[in-house]
């Protein structure tokens, strides 16, 4: 088992308004992702839970959003100042992510995975070279614009995320 010196950052604080229910709890949710990364030997897994009222919903190290931080872009920028070393971001709606895809991402140096629709998924960014981060960015895509695309056709379906119930029904 490889020892991973990468902090896993699970994004689980969204309101899930388009989905109509809490994505962090669907399809095994955050607990499924915690299991995957624990089995891969992750040393540190932080769940970003959103409002402090959500802390009790999750196991392990859980961080509420700081009061001064508004929105996911600002939250990611804030986290980059608080966490040293490599980071693997994973959204709670990474319902298709399996241990094979998670392991492959962790073995990459730096980059943004590409899903089966050829879309870059910046909320699954693998961060090892902080110099490539655009701290002036006004979008999450912009934050990681200088990161290379990580393409692995066999695993690309695992890097999709879901925003509506209809997308989920058709998986």
What does this structure look like?
With 171 residues, this protein is of the alpha/beta class. It has five helices and seven strands. A five-stranded mixed sheet has the order 3-2-1-4-6, covered by helices on one side. The chain is globular, with a radius of gyration of 15 Å. Residues 164-171 have low confidence and may be disordered.
Spans of at least 5 consecutive residues with low confidence: 164-171
DSSP strand (E) fraction? 15-25%
Residue share in helices? 10-25%
How many helices in DSSP terms?
5
Spatial sequence of strands, sheet with the most strands: 3-2-1-4-6
| Structure summary, number of beta strands | 7
Order of helices and strands: EHEEHEHEEHEH
What is the overall silhouette? globular
Q: Work out the oligomeric state of the chains in this entry.
A: single chain
Alpha-beta content class: alpha/beta
Major beta sheet summary: 5 strands, mixed
Mean pLDDT: 86
What gap, in angstroms, lies between the N and C termini? 31 Å
Evaluate the radius of gyration.
Answer: 15 Å
Offer a quick outline of the entry:
The chain is an alpha/beta fold and about 170 residues long. The chain contains five helices and seven strands, in the order E-H-E-E-H-E-H-E-E-H-E-H. The strands form two sheets. Strands 3-2-1-4-6 form a five-stranded mixed sheet, with helices on one face. A two-stranded parallel ribbon has the order 5-7.
């Amino acid at each position: 088992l490889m020892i991973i010196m990468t902090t896993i950052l699970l994004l689980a604080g969204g309101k899930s308004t388009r989905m109509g229910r809490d994505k962090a709890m669907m399809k095994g949710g955050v607990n499924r992702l915690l299991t995957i990364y624990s089995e891969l030997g992750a040393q540190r897994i932080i769940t970003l839970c959103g409002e402090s009222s959500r802390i009790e919903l999750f196991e392990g190290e859980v961080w509420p959003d700081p009061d001064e931080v508004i929105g996911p872009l600002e939250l990611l920028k804030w986290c980059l100042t608080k966490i040293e070393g490599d980071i693997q971001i994973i959204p709670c709606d990474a319902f298709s992510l399996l241990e094979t895809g998670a392991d492959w991402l962790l073995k990459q140096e730096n980059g943004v995975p590409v899903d089966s629709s050829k879309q870059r998924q910046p909320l699954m960014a693998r961060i090892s070279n902080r110099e490539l981060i655009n701290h002036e960015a006004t979008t999450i895509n912009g934050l990681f614009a200088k990161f290379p695309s990580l393409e692995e056709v066999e695993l690309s379906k695992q890097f999709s995320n879901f925003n509506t119930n209809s997308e989920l029904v058709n998986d």
